[in-house]
What we know:
Elements: E1 4-5, E2 9-10, H1 12-28, E3 33-37, E4 43-44, H2 46-61, E5 65-69, H3 73-81, H4 85-88
Parallel strand pairs: 1-3, 2-4, 3-5
Amino acid sequence: MPPLNLPQELTHDQAGDWLKSLVFAMQQNKERRITADASRLVHFDSSALAVLLACRREALLVGKTFDVAHMPEKLRQLAVVYGVSDLLLNAPSA
């Protein structure tokens, strides 16, 4: 199954809707490894990290792995600042 594609913008205003959408897509995915593709992310805030962490938690609850591919450098830096880089920075960047 293709990766979960994140949008160009993922801020507080869109976080709830995107989380619901991504969790639904993960539930439909029969693969054991779930990958979120963050290559399109341009405008985001810390809510993007919250969405990714919630997706990771949902995946782990059903015995799947979760990683993020092509994470923008600024989002990587936010992950480090918030102390969650070890949870999300498994996949190589673009």
